């Protein structure tokens, strides 16, 4: 079933956004033209003639192009290009003739675009807007970041809009009211109509998510949408999707953030899962992958565009044929071009002494993303540069722990830090040659917000670096929870109530400092009240935020969450000189709930540690060779050794983290309940035996029971 | 593609794998396991051969099928195979922290078993240029011992730290083999007898050295969290690469069949890669399922040619034949490389148009270096309109990691970096400074490479008013057949000075040189003095400083022989103290050993009684015996702890002695240094205190 594809490089353009490559349909089985647009604002249209790449059209540089899509008459194959830069949509014919320039009037720049016949859908931040023949048709404010949009016709005139939304949902919209919602486990980032050859399906949509899952969505006329199948294996983010027949059958083509391109079989039956046929890694993130007949008339291939602007094909043509075709001629031509460039480089160096170029092109484009990993409560920071990275410096003004990532070959070095300079972390990553992207895993501490400054230095002379600022929220390890029925979550809640002269928008902005992934706009439900629900990735406690103009209430079982939130919100209010009245209602049995959530985790981890210890001992005494001599418990251990060890590497210091959480909980509990401040050292001493025992009753006793010795050392303060 | 693969189903220790033909014709694999045993795997052994022989009393090997186990009972610290003398069979060497065992596998008998108080942390076999026969070279704690086939010591020398890597090869291309050694204090040196031909300092403890071709060798160095591999040719580095994984072993093997060897590296991540010796380019790599335990060359298929054998800690064994990684240059690849190069050039051109304009805003970075206030201070100042965002100093083996970053809370116009080097010696620093306009997020990075001189951690001071006690007569005195002017030149090169040191040509002080220095690390005062009669006095209390000065000066002046008088009372006292402790340990150990023997016989006795009680179904008796056993067990553990503690002290004392010898030898150059080492060694062996002191003081 597996297929063999060979890489052939075609051309380099500027840095590209995702979804900025299109392939034109062709009536006969001839090689197809294709268009690529880049951040320099240049649209290129290429075609192959006699095995050689030719530029048909090249536009003048302009503002950064975010997206290009194909459009045209509904009855004909799509033959026109629509590209979006800023809030403008520009149309070109396949010959490169400009036929449309349309200012949409949207405030934010367009991030997603779709054209169907005379309908044009544009998404800017959290707003979806549809135009028909360049006149406003309908518009809908989602309040969540929009990642992608697809229009599907129903009947002759009506259209359905399918939107990929940042709150882990697919919304299907007809007109301007009541979209139907399909909740997913993770954020969908890309939508692509299922196509067979030139024929695009009207009821099947391929979907890719931020955590690397791919699925097929089925749509019916009544805007109901359901999942047909999903490949649930977690991986790097999906950045490009297509369906195309390369060999024998229709294939699913996937491009990812980590540079891998995968080809799967597309099953005809819903019950069969796709099978992997081909995998390739390009080393930098993929902007687009499209199937087509590009370089030669009879061989299907994949046309790939990468972030730094490399355009190449993965062709099914045999490599021997390739060599004949490309031959020494092409190589000599390249060598000549390189020589010319080198000479120009020398010239430029001398010449630029006096010339003052005011039109400076964009250099050092950095693409970065911070992702919260729910399973181990850590963050992954992805940094990608459009050229080779020399080194990356990470500076943090709050304690951050860097974790080792497999596949990251950079040499990491921690420098000594002077806390007086506001440095809690100074780490350098010195990269190996030809590294364009780096994945860094880090862990923050809740209640210690701050900013990461990331300096990315390129390898190319004269060396330059770009600085990125990445905020770390106070409740950094909380993630959004999407529950339709928010009354169903129960549990004794502690309540924090704030009353003061703030507006809804102000409170929403303050919360954005405290919580990760806050929606673009407050989500208003039930009149004027906005609601958000978060859950802790560490222990699974809930945080419910309800706020409106003048009052805000926060509910959580976890007293630490409440205290952190109170600290940050009062601080923000003081900065804005807004007076707040603060009320804290502590529910005594909330502590039981939290401990009930933590204890099972603690027990499992302890057991795991013990099992690993036993395995290590068996190793040292070389007793693993004859498992039959041992008791069944040990035999099972040996059988599951690789699993256990894998779990252990995942949760290497989770035990200490849980201990720290319990200690913090106690400190905050004392602070909220007894208005006493105790140091975490005192707390951990007091709790030590109870934590070790892992006994609920003992722990509760330590929390609630009177302890005179602790009282004598603590200093009472006002809450 | 792999030519064979098999699994030993045992966990092996990383770094302790060797192969040899113990019967002279069939290749065997040996490896250390975690519990202090050594495994011998012999796939071509004819089963049952040794069964007919009477098991001799000293047979340590027990065969079961293809595998045999050698019980060492102690942590194995070195493993090697090699041929000694005329015998065509390989001898198997095992090193522990106290002994070396040379074993004849085929005879199942010891060749020798010798106590080495310095331990055996690496072993190699070869023919050294200045010795007539093949010898065993053993690296121990601060020493290198050379043994012949009778286990007699034929050569001994000191090293600065634990010796962890050895190689015997022709370093200078004169046809004779030299000895190359690597130590845990990052040093590599090549020596011919006692003459040090070349030495260098790497960035981490050296764990492996391997001869490649004439004058060319590879080394591997490892620290927690990273590993380095590199190749030297005639003492010049050709290339080095650093990875976040650890290097376990290196080996030369012709994997692509082009007639020249490649350098193979086995990593803790389970990766093995082959690099061209000339430039470090990777031509082959393979990922194994577990960390690499070792790479050896063995003719495991009996093909007549040795294969490369990769062994992992999980016991997986995989073989690759010569030429199994043939290069197939593809036109497509070449095309792609050229495309990438073109893109890089285009980008450079583009970057220049943006970054260049900044250059001519007068933005040169002003740099100053001074030795002051306890550190070497690197001052940076940015040009007008620009601020320094951060500065990054890369230097190997000086900081906790490989870099030191100074990041002010707000971008500043000036920045001072305090560098504190733990050791003397020239240091290469590589500074990257990021400067840019205020509030900008695109900055330029200015790079600066600088070599700091050998004595940069000493500042020049005027003659102190009050001399510290005893400085007057402490230090080293020697006769230097050179003019003061040349010594002054050397000092100007080796110190960071604001004004050059000059020697008066006329007047009462003509030809007289006196320089006072203060150490930035410990604030101690030192003085280098040279009078008109060419008598050089180094007045100091620090023997390491004196040694460094003598050695560096001798190299600068091209002196091959230099003898001196040394006076370091504290150092002498410390040596004598160490000698006392060394003696003390031997007595304590003998006594403790006797006690342990007594306890263990008691244990045996109790077990017999316990068994009796069990047979008689005497529950009470069993309980009593078990309790007694428990008590004795506790005693045994306690005894063991005492013993291991006192052994630790013993090793410490021995190390102190060896360091002392090293220091004493460094006051001299050439024959004088050699004889100092030998005299000290003799004195320690005989436990003769007076002789030891005299050896340190005089030639």
From TrEMBL, chain A:
GO terms for cellular component: axoneme; BBSome; ciliary basal body; membrane; neuron projection. Residues 26-316 form the BBS7 beta-propeller domain. Residues 490-585 form the BBS7 platform domain. InterPro entries: BBS7_GAE_dom, BBS7_hairpin, BBS7_pf_dom, Beta-prop_BBS7, WD40_repeat_dom_sf. Residues 588-703 form the BBS7 helical hairpin domain. Pfam families: BBS7_GAE, BBS7_hp, BBS7_pf, Beta-prop_BBS7. GO terms for biological process: cilium assembly; intracellular protein localization. Residues 364-466 form the BBS7 GAE domain. This is Bardet-Biedl syndrome 7 protein homolog. It comes from Ceratosolen solmsi marchali. The lineage of its organism: Eukaryota, Metazoa, Ecdysozoa, Arthropoda, Hexapoda. The gene is LOC105362660.
Automatic annotation (TrEMBL), chain B:
Residues 19-126 form the Ciliary BBSome complex subunit 2 N-terminal domain. The lineage of its organism: Eukaryota, Metazoa, Ecdysozoa, Arthropoda, Hexapoda. It comes from Ceratosolen solmsi marchali. Its main location: other. Pfam families: BBS2_GAE (PF14782), BBS2_hp (PF23353), BBS2_Mid (PF14783), BBS2_N (PF14781), BBS2_pf (PF23350). This is Bardet-Biedl syndrome 2 protein homolog. Residues 569-666 form the BBS2 hairpin domain. It comes from the Eukaryota. GO terms for cellular component: BBSome; ciliary basal body; membrane; motile cilium; neuron projection. It is found in: Cell projection, Cilium; Cytoplasm, Cytoskeleton. Residues 373-454 form the BBS2 GAE domain. Residues 165-275 form the Ciliary BBSome complex subunit 2 middle region domain. The keyword Cytoplasm applies. Residues 468-556 form the BBS2 platform domain. Keywords: Cell projection, Cilium, Cytoplasm, Cytoskeleton. One of its GO terms (biological process) is non-motile cilium assembly. The keyword Heme does not apply.
């Amino acid at each position: 079933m597996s297929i063999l594809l060979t890489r052939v490089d075609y051309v380099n353009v500027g840095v590209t956004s995702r979804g900025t490559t299109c392939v034109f349909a062709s009536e006969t089985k001839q090689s197809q033209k294709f268009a690529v647009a880049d951040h320099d604002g240049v649209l290129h249209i290429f075609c192959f003639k006699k095995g050689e790449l030719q530029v048909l059209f090249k536009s003048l540089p302009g503002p950064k192009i975010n997206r290009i899509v194909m459009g045209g008459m509904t009855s004909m194959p799509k033959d026109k290009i629509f590209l979006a830069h800023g809030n403008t949509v520009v149309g070109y014919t396949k010959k490169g003739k400009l036929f449309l320039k349309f200012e949409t009037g949207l405030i934010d720049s367009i991030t997603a675009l779709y054209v169907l016949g005379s309908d044009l859908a544009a998404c800017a931040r959290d707003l979806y807007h549809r135009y028909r023949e360049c006149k406003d048709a309908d518009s809908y404010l989602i309040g969540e970041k929009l990642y992608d949009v697809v229009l599907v016709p129903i009947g002759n005139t009506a259209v359905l809009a399918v939107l990929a939304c940042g709150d882990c949902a697919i919304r299907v919209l007809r007109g301007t009211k009541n979209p139907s919602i399909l909740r997913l486990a993770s954020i969908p980032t890309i939508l692509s109509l299922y196509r067979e050859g030139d024929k695009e399906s009207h009821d099947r949509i391929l979907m890719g998510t931020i955590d690397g899952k791919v699925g097929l969505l089925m749509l019916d006329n009544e805007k109901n949408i359901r999942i047909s199948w999903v490949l649930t294996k977690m991986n790097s983010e999906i950045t490009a999707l297509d369906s195309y027949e390369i060999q024998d059958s229709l294939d699913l083509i996937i491009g990812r953030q980590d540079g891998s391109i995968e080809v799967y079989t597309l099953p005809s039956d819903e019950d069969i899962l796709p099978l992997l046929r081909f995998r390739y890694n390009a080393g930098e993130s993929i902007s687009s992958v499209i199937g087509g007949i590009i370089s030669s008339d009879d061989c299907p291939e994949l046309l790939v565009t990468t972030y730094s602007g490399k355009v190449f094909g993965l062709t099914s043509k045999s490599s021997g044929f390739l060599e004949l075709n490309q031959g020494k001629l092409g190589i000599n031509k390249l060598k000549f071009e390189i020589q010319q460039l080198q000479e120009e480089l020398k010239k430029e160096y001398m010449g630029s002494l006096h010339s003052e170029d005011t039109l400076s092109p964009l250099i050092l484009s950095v693409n970065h993303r911070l992702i919260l990993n729910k399973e181990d409560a850590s963050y992954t920071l992805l940094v990608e540069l459009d050229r080779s990275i020399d080194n990356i410096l990470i500076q943090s003004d709050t304690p951050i722990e860097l974790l080792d990532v497999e596949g990251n070959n950079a040499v990491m070095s921690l420098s000594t830090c002077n806390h007086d300079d506001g440095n809690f972390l100074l780490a350098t990553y010195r990269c190996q040659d030809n590294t364009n992207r780096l994945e860094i895993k880090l862990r923050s501490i809740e209640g210690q917000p701050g900013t990461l400054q990331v300096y990315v230095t390129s390898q190319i002379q004269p060396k330059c670096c770009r600085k990125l600022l990445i905020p770390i929220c106070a409740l950094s390890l909380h993630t959004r929870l999407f529950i339709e029925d928010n009354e169903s979550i129960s549990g004794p809640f502690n309540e924090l109530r704030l009353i003061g002269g703030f507006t809804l928008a102000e409170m929403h902005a303050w919360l954005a400092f405290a919580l990760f992934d806050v929606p673009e706009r407050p989500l208003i439900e039930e009149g004027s009240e906005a609601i958000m629900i978060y859950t802790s990735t560490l222990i699974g406690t809930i945080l419910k935020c309800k706020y409106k103009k003048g009052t805000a209430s926060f509910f959580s079982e976890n007293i630490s969450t409440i205290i952190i939130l109170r600290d940050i919100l009062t601080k923000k209010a003081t900065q804005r000189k807004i007076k707040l009245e603060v009320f804290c209602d502590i529910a005594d049995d909330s502590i039981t709930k939290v401990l009930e959530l933590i204890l099972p985790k603690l027990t499992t981890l302890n057991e795991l540690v013990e099992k690993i210890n036993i395995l290590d001992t068996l190793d040292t005494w070389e007793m693993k060779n004859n498992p039959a001599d041992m008791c069944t418990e040990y035999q099972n251990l040996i059988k599951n050794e690789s699993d256990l060890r894998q779990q252990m590497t995942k949760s290497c210091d989770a035990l200490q983290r849980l201990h720290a959480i319990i200690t913090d909980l106690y400190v905050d509990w004392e602070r909220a309940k007894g208005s006493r401040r105790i140091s975490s050292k005192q707390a951990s001493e007091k709790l030590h035996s109870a934590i070790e025992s892992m006994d609920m009753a003992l722990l509760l006793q330590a929390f609630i029971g009177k302890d005179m010795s602790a009282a004598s050392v603590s200093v009472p303060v006002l809450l | 593609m792999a030519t064979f693969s098999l699994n030993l189903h045992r966990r092996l220790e990383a770094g302790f794998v060797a192969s040899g033909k113990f019967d002279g014709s069939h290749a065997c694999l040996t490896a250390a396991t975690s519990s202090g045993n050594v495994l011998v795997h012999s796939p071509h052994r004819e089963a049952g051969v040794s069964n007919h022989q009477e098991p001799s009393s000293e047979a340590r090997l027990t065969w079961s099928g293809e595998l045999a186990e050698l019980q060492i009972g102690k942590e194995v610290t070195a493993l090697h195979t090699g041929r000694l003398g005329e015998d065509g069979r390989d001898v198997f060497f095992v090193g522990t922290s106290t002994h070396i065992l040379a074993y004849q596998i085929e005879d199942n008998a010891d060749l020798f078993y010798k106590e080495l108080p310095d331990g055996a942390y690496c072993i190699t076999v070869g023919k050294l240029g200045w010795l007539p026969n093949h010898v065993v070279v053993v690296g121990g704690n601060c020493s290198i011992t050379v043994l012949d086939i009778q286990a007699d010591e034929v050569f001994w020398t000191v090293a600065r730290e634990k010796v962890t890597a050895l190689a015997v090869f022709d370093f200078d291309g004169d046809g004779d083999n030299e000895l190359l050694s690597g130590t845990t204090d990052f040093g590599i040196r090549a020596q011919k007898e006692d003459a040090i031909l070349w030495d260098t300092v790497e960035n981490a403890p050296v764990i492996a050295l391997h001869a490649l071709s004439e004058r060319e060798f590879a080394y591997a160095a490892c620290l927690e969290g990273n590993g380095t591999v590199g190749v030297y040719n005639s003492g010049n580095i050709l290339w080095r690469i650093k990875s976040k994984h650890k290097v376990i072993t290196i080996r030369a093997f012709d994997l692509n069949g082009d007639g020249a060897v490649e350098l193979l590296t086995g990593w803790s991540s389970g990766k093995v890669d082959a690099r061209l010796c000339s430039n470090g380019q990777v031509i082959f790599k393979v990922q194994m399922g577990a960390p690499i335990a070792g790479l050896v060359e063995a003719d495991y298929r009996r093909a007549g040619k040795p294969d490369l054998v990769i062994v992992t800690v999980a016991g997986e064994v995989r073989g690759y034949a010569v030429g199994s990684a043939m290069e197939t240059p593809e036109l497509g690849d070449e095309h792609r490389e050229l495309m990438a190069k073109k893109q890089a050039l285009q980008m450079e051109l583009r970057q220049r148009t943006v970054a260049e304009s900044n250059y001519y805003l007068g933005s040169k970075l002003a740099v100053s270096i001074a030795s002051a206030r306890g550190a070497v201070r690197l001052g940076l100042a940015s040009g007008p309109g620009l601020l320094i965002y951060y500065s990054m100093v890369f230097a190997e083996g000086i900081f906790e990691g490989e870099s030191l970053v100074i990041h002010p809370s707000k971008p500043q116009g000036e920045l001072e970096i305090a560098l504190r080097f733990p050791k003397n010696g020239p240091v290469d620093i590589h500074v990257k400074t990021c400067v840019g306009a205020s509030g900008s997020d695109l900055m330029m990075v200015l790079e600066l490479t600088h070599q700091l001189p050998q004595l940069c951690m000493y500042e020049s001071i005027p003659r102190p008013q009050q001399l510290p006690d005893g400085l007057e007569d402490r230090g080293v005195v020697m006769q230097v057949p050179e003019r003061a002017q040349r010594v002054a030149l050397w000092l100007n090169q080796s110190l960071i000075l604001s004004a050059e040191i000059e020697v008066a040509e006329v007047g009462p002080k003509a030809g007289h040189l006196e320089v006072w220095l203060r150490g930035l690390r410990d604030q101690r005062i030192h003085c280098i003095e040279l009078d008109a009669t060419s008598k050089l006095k180094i007045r100091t209390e620090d023997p390491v400083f004196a040694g460094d000065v003598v050695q560096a000066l001798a190299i600068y002046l091209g002196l091959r022989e230099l003898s001196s008088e040394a006076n370091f009372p504290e150092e002498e006292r410390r040596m004598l103290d160490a000698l006392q402790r060394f003696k003390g340990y031997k007595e304590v150990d003998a006594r403790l050993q006797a006690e342990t023997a007594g306890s263990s016989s008691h244990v045996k006795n109790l077990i017999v009684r316990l068994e009796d009680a069990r047979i008689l179904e005497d529950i009470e008796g069993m309980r009593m015996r078990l309790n007694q056993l428990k008590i004795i067990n506790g005693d045994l553990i306690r005894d063991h702890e005492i013993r291991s503690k006192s052994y630790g002290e013993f090793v410490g004392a021995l190390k102190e002695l060896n360091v002392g010898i090293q220091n004493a030898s460094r006051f001299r150059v050439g024959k004088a240094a050699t004889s100092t080492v030998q005299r000290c060694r003799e004195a320690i062996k005989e436990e003769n205190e007076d002789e030891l002191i005299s050896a340190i003081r005089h030639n």
